[in-house]
Amino acid sequence: KKTKGDPKPGQEEESRTCCGCRFPLLFALLQLALGTSVTVLGFLMAGISSSLLVRDTPYWAGIIVCVVSLVGFVMLCISYQPDEKTCVQFTVKLMYFLLSALGLVACVLAVAFAAHHYLQMTRFTCDTILDSCQCKLDTADPLGRTFIYQDAADCGSLTSMLNLYLLLQMGLNLITALVCLAACFVMWKHRYQVFYVGVRFYPLTPTECQQQKV
């Protein structure tokens, strides 16, 4: 026998759906915010010196994550159908999962490149020559590699600002990679069925209609 305090089956399903609906929206918002931050910071780093390589200014990782978040928002706008009954729903979910995995790989690469460059910067000995900053790892070695940063009139300000940007890139990309990993984990664990994706309508059964009339 059911007591008055026992929730109805429809209420249980609705509460479970509502609890799960926070996951994809939260991930999409976090990915959009973090991806935008990484992209803006990457373009700021590219403006410091024209000699910086693309791998050292990981705006590409931020753009990928922003695209992932947009796919997540599209996924929220699709009407929910249980058991993947629509091709569009399945395609968008699969695309979101694959792009999240791609964003994870891109962010990990960005962290590795930024960490490698930062370790080099800590051992550089730099001198300002004309409008460029020339740095060496070992000044005693005449055949050692020289790193040249163009459009830099002051080596001190360039190295300090670049070190700060590299640290920020490592932190932001690491957090973004964790968010993409969590998104992939949730999508895989729930098999695209447990949590809410889109708008779901619950049609009233004849029993519920009779109860409402009473």
Automatic annotation (TrEMBL):
Its main location: membrane. Keywords: Membrane, Transmembrane, Transmembrane helix. It is a multi-pass membrane protein. One of its GO terms (cellular component) is dystrophin-associated glycoprotein complex. It is found in: Membrane. The chain crosses the membrane at residues 25-48, 60-82, 94-115, 166-188. It holds the Pfam family CD20. This is Sarcospan. It comes from Chaetura pelagica.
